[in-house]
Amino acid sequence: MIPELGHFALALAIAFALAQAVIPLWGAHRGDVRLMQAAPALALGQALALSVSFGCLIYASVMDDFTVLNVAENSHTLKPLLYKITGAWGSHEGSILFWCLILGLCGAAVALFSAPLPASLRARVLGVLALSAFGFELFTLIESNPFARIWPAPDNGRDMNPLLQDPGLAFHPPILYSGYVGMAIPFAFAIAALLEGRIDAAWGRWVRPWTLAAWCCLTGGIALGSWWSYYVLGWGGFWFWDPVENASLLPWLTATALLHSAIVVEKREALKIWTVLLAIGAFAFSLSGTFLVRSGILNSVHSFANDPARGVFILGLLGLLIGGSLLLFAIRAPLLGASGVFAAVSREGALVMNNILLCSITAVVLTGTMYPLFADLLLSQKISVGPPFYNATVLPLAAPVFVAMAVGPLMSWKRTALMPALLKLWWVALIAAIVGIVATFGMNALPALFMAAAAWMILGAFADIIERIRLFRIPLGSSLSRLVSLPLQAFGTTLGHAGLGVTVAGIAGMSMAVQEVVLVKPGATVHLAGYDWTLQELHDAAGPNYNARVATIAVRQDGRLITTLAPERRAFTTQTMTTTEAKIHTNLTRDLYAVLGEERDGAAVLRLHDNTMAPLIWLGALVMAAGGACSLADRRLRVAAPKRAAKSDAVLAGRT
Amino acid sequence: MNRRLLLAAPFGVALLGGGAFYAMLRGLQTGSFDPRGVPSQLIGKPLPEFQLPGFSRADVLAQKRPVIINFFASWCVPCVDEAPTLMALHQRGVPIWGIAYKDKPAATQGFLARHGNPFTNLASDEPGLVAIDWGVTGVPETYLIDAQGIVQWRFVGPLPDAAVDGLSKLVAS
Amino acid sequence: MRAILLVLLLLARPAWAISDPAEALPDPAAEARAVEIGSQLRCLVCQNESIEDSGADLARDLRHIVREHVAKGETDAQITAWMVARYGDFVLLRPKVNWGTALLWASPVLALLVAGGLALGLRRRSPPAAPLSAEEQQRLARLMES
Question: Which of A31, A279, A590, C127 is deepest in the core (most CB within 10 A)?
């Protein structure tokens, strides 16, 4: 009964989406206020229907309803409750429905928070969102229906991949998807602007909070995925330039460029074409990522069950959405008014440079990811493009971005000279140089250089605030009062830039990480990185759906007990897979990391790591996301243009 | 005019990309596009020098006729799928020489007893090093060596029934 | 196709089986060199990992072979050539630089050129200001003096 309700709700959502697509867009085209005003209610209706639908899927999973094929293939009575709930978005069908749900919720959010927008823009944005939603919901209903039934129902399900039964991975999809799908909103804004035939400063201001929100989620989602692979896969790796990881990096890079480019649209009404293209691009990369992962084309650890037939449907959907939007761009972009003027050396100029560099990095990552596929298709050559390539090509492009990040915010709008901005950073350069030199005592030249860059980025980010409050140049009290009255956006920028610096520091610090693989009997002690690691004992343990072998390792420094780590090897009963649970002790500047391997003659293979500065990698991402949230909280972003809506609606109503 | 061309470029790129992906999907369905496959470096080259308990390269060359060499193992599930196909080939008189990959001899014998022995000759590559020389990445893999000792064809995975006819004709000629 | 995946799954015991301490070469410098070479070689039965990172049997065998060759004193180039002779360019995580990969390796420079060119090409230049008339120039002179 409940699955049928879910199925029906999905179909209802499709009806809402169709209405939401056709009615407001037609209304905007015709200038019919009543039709345009139908959009928000339809968006809320769609979101409600999708929520009910997904709720039914979760219910079926929690209730162990094995007549539902999706539940039978991915769940099990012994699976812990948390994973029954989060497993709803772990399978292909569930995750596609989840994608639709978030798209619907995005539409509802826009409907609720976009009152200040002019009616036609609002109607068009909601209409475009509905078009995308319609396509994906149709795909879900026809090709990936999570409510398909199986009869006779099996006694028990096939259980979920043990790798997914982990808190980190359980929450990685919702956050990541919010980021991916959230890019649909700036996309909708861009298409709406192209349909309207104009972009003004207000558009730049409206687009930013939505892009920020999606960007925050995407940053969090990518960081969570990276952290998960670090602690689950067991050898301290956190980024592999895997095609699907790249597929998440591409929208992130594009969205970062979009965030910065939109500022120039707002301030100068310039870079309109570039900004619109970036908005289309960010969502296009999100969509392409979805396609590649589910089509079987990509060779990756992340690939879902491969089904080329599904691939053709998604490709068609993508063709319509991306191809259609780029065609619209080609035709309508010239209409987007004349741009403001600024000198090459100015904050706008720096933002253009930022655009160029970020887009180049995007192009390189895209080329690297796609090259093996195209070489195979066109040249029948099988090649691999792995981390050595990306490290060699992306790092040289990223370095100028790191340097410019500190200088840009200090430059004035419209026209400025470079030297004054650089001179203001003299103390930052000095400290960064010292950090770099000190770092060479512990690490090689290249990581030390990036350590210096990290210091430059972090301190440079604060330099902007220090300049604004004129610290040490006016009385301290005045500085403090200036600090308190600074807009939240200033803190947002600082945290965002500093966060990236922290992540770079973490990555550079990991070059100092040490590890050792040892075969020891209980009672033996290993000396690594100044700590004494003692394997105390090995014992068996049992979990809800697995049997585990646990090692207890005491870590001491100078006789003092720092921590006890208990890494496990878990053998899952239904899926017959063994996973290792690494155990990590962190003090936020380094991770002590232990993994249990196989056992022989009473001795166990242990892999012990001292990962210096590893936590900084994800702390940095957290700081970046916090910066984004800070900016979002800034009232100026939300109190957009004055409420012209009521007046213009009345005028339009008078006309009809 | 220049500007229009530039603005149409993203659409053009997307079109090309879309066309390429469509071709890849078609290829995935027909089997002509395999992003996971590792092509064999041996095709058209003489078979590598090897010496295993069971037979060696010299023994293969001494046949002076086409030989099929099949890498298999008792722990390999698709090899069970493949066993009837190999038996059918064997019954047609096609010489199949088997190399047991990373398999204990007792286990291999057990496998052959259970599923039939299609092999004219059997060798054991327990360390798996000879397989690496052949560029083998897993089992089952099947190679066709011609009368001059040149590797002409390789198949990864369980041999499909459809291959039986073609192979028997090739070997007979 | 499914069967091949199954075979791969059987072989690629998930990359959580950590390597055996007995594998390492006794000489730390040689071991470091072997790790360096190994991290450039792709594990052929895994999804996108190097043989150093993977727990698959084939990866372990290949690691062993790399260490044997390092112990024998072979150069990096010789060892990678040995691998390529058996598995093709696919085994190299760092693609070779040749005409087939020219676009790939040139992509950073190309991207910068294209992006930079677009930035310049799409710039709208405001029309040059009309020259000032004599009267306007006088006014300007007066304003500048005061």
Answer: A279
| Contact (CB<8Å) C116/A518 | no
According to CATH, the superfamily of the domain at B57-172 is: Glutaredoxin (3.40.30.10)
How far away is chain A from the Cα of B95, in angstroms, using its nearest Cα? 32
Comparing CA positions, the residue from A570, A445, A470, A592 lying closest to residue A526 is A592
- Find the residue in B nearest to C119 (Cα): B6
Contact criterion met (CB below 8 Å) for A56 and A12: no
CB-nearest partner of C121 from B6, B81, B156:
B6
Residue found under tokens 């009385």:
A475
Instruction: State how far the Cα of A453 lies from the Cα of A191, in Å rounded to an integer.
Output: 38
What is the C-alpha to C-alpha distance for residues A172 and C116, in angstroms, rounded to an integer?
A: 36
Token digits of residue C17: 């089986």
**Which contiguous run of DSSP H or E holds residue A165?**
none
Give the confidence band of A229 by pLDDT, cuts at 50, 70, 90.
confident
Distance from CA of A323 to the nearest CA of B (A): 6
CA A517 from centroid of its chain's CA atoms: 34
Q: Do A598 and C111 touch (CB under 8 A)?
A: no
Per-residue pLDDT at C124 = 60
Closest CA to C54 of C100, C8, C89: C8
Q: Which band of pLDDT confidence, cut at 50, 70 and 90, is reported for residue B27? A: confident
- ipTM confidence score: 0.88
Segment B89-132, tens digit of pLDDT: 999 888 999 999 999 999 999 999 999 999 999 999 999 999 99
Model confidence at C12: pLDDT above 50: no
Per-residue confidence at C21, pLDDT binned at 50, 70, 90? confident
pTM summary value: 0.89
Q: Which residue of A has its CA nearest to C97?
A: A389
**pLDDT at position A134, please?**
95
Tokens standing for B106? 């007792």
**A-to-B residue pairs, Cβ atoms closer than 8 angstroms:** 72
The amino acid occupying position A18 is L
Q: How does A351-368 read in b/e, with b if 16+ C-beta sit within 10 Å?
A: bbbbbbbbbbbbbbbbbb
For residue A218 the two structure tokens come to 């995407």
Report the residue of C104, C109, C123, C124 to disrupt the A interface, i.e. the one with the largest count of A CBs within 10 Å: C104
Whole-number Å distance between alpha carbons of A219 and A296: 26
What does the pLDDT look like over C82-135, one tens digit per residue?
999 999 999 999 999 998 899 999 999 999 999 988 888 766 655 555 677 788
Name beta bridge partners: A275: none
Residue type (1 letter), A304: F
Taking the C-alpha atoms of residue A16 and residue A48, their distance in angstroms, rounded to an integer, is: 10
Angstrom CA distances, A633 to A218, A262, A626, A636, stand at: 18, 18, 10, 9
Nearest Cα residue to B152 out of B86, B65, B59: B65
Chain A residue closest in CA terms to B40: A382
Q: Which residue has the tokens 């790399």?
A: C66
